[in-house]
Design a protein that fits this description.
By secondary structure, the chain is of the alpha/beta class. The chain has twelve helices and 14 strands. The chain is globular and about 70 Å long. The structure holds S-adenosyl-L-homocysteine.
Length: about 350
């Protein structure tokens, strides 16, 4: 298939309909095609669609499902990490985690990332390109097909910055919710951002039900700018104003990610500053937003030199937040034996693991 043609997996049902009509096929064929594509079948595997039709289709559209190039399964908790190969040979990672309430997939939004966060493996080689909606969706379809299990929740916390690939991500959110397809509703989807403020305002207007997750990692501009270059453009106070706007527009609570790095942002003083910032910015008389902070002990990435905060510092940090009325949970580490945090497998591809 010619990869320069529009991608079948990126098309909505309406778009598939138009495409089928344009090659002289009836509308019901588009429905058949949509259902089967989203179940993980390639057009060639669709025996209920004749060869002549499939050939006409191949001349006007492309098809590629991310191919599991590597697949690591955790012996501890069954977490599965995929290295998916895309049509052009680029690779991204997805991780499937098994929880009591169902399977959650963490998907990538770009090949690489240009945000430059100092602790993150995904950004080391910069951004190669955005993923299109079909490649975002394809990770869910391919993982479901490979595991033969339903995935019920999605987190956009893999490689890349979703709000730096805004249009494709928005299209994906609508596609993945289609009742004839994967059918994962927005309440089961979280989108994590390092804080691209104008896009948070834009997202607030979309009327979505997703959970927004903000990678905060520090409560003051000096510390945050030192580890997250994006903060030089939009500082902490600006980011908090955007969060408040998002909450008032959508009514959806926001969760905050806070990576604990030894000696950088893990002191009790940092915890107090974080509680003060969140309470002051988000809990005013007119807004009683529930605030939840996810504490993530930093995953040590060889190239970055950052060291994980120790357990007692993590406990003190969580208790300090709780004492100020902020719910804090320490992220349970899944897939510890397979390097499950995103970015590391793609970098290691080709080297000995
Ligand atoms: N670009 C988006 C989503 C991808 S990163 C964002 O910044 O939110 C997903 C989460 O993992 C973010 O909170 C990010 O800051 C965090 N993260 C990245 N590298 C990490 C590391 N080495 N240890 C712990 N968390 C990390």
């Amino acid at each position: 298939m010619n990869n320069n043609l529009p991608s079948l997996l990126s098309m909505s049902r309406e778009e598939l309909c138009e495409l089928m009509i344009s090659i002289g096929e009836p509308k019901y064929r588009a429905e058949q095609l949509f259902v089967q594509l989203h179940r993980g079948l390639s057009p060639d595997e669709m025996t209920n669609i004749g060869k002549a039709t499939r050939e006409k289709l191949a001349a006007v559209a492309s098809y590629h499902l991310p191919r599991p190039k590597r697949r690591l399964v955790s012996a501890i908790d069954g977490t599965v990490k995929y290295l998916f190969e895309l049509a052009d040979g680029n690779c991204v990672e997805s991780v499937v985690m098994k929880y009591e309430h169902g399977n959650t997939i963490c998907i990538s939004s770009q090949v690489g990332c240009r945000m430059g966060c100092k602790f993150c493996a995904s950004t080391i080689g910069g951004k190669v390109r955005d993923l299109d909606a079909g490649e975002l969706l394809g990770q869910v379809i391919a993982a479901q097909k490979d595991s033969n299990e339903r995935i019920s929740n999605i987190v956009m916390m893999g490689i890349g910055e979703p709000l730096d690939n805004y249009d494709n991500v928005l299209k994906f959110l609508r596609l993945v919710g289609d009742e004839k397809g994967i059918c994962i509703g927005q309440r089961h989807i979280s989108l994590s951002t390092c804080g691209i403020v104008p896009k948070i305002y834009e997202l607030a207007k979309e009327n979505l039900q997703i959970t927004l997750s903000i990678s905060l990692h520090a409560a003051d501009d000096t510390t945050r700018s030192a580890i997250m270059p994006v903060n030089n453009k939009w500082g902490v106070e600006e980011l908090m104003r955007a969060c408040k706007d998002y909450y008032s527009a959508s009514g959806r609570r926001i969760s905050f990610e806070y990576t604990l790095i030894s000696g950088k942002n893990d002191s009790r003083k940092s915890a107090l500053a974080l509680a003060e910032l969140l309470n002051r910015s988000l809990r005013t008389r007119s807004s009683t937003m529930p605030i939840h902070v996810n504490l993530i002990p930093v995953n040590e990435v060889e190239e970055t030199g950052f060291v994980r905060a120790d357990d007692s510092a993590i406990r003190t940090f969580a208790k300090t937040l709780e004492s100020k009325g902020i719910r804090a949970t320490v992220r349970r580490k899944l897939g510890a034996d397979i390097n499950a945090s995103c970015g590391q497998l793609r970098r290691a591809d080709g080297k000995e693991l």
